[in-house]
Design goal:
The protein is an alpha/beta fold. The chain is built from two helices and three strands; from the N terminus they run E-H-E-H-E. The protein starts with a strand and ends with a strand.
Amino acid sequence: MIYGYIRVSSRDQNEDRQLNALKTLVAQKNIYVDKQSGKDFNRPQYKKLLKLLKKDDLLYIKSID
């Protein structure tokens, strides 16, 4: 399975740039987005994605900053 993950720091930031890039590689239903600080990994969509990932799955992350 192929997944994508997007995180932006705040509700004011826009994830569209990352989303548009990932849509060319990943089905939209498999793209997970969190809008919160990157200070820790206590993020709802990230946790959901981790539970789905299996060996040999592919995860795209457009921006890691």
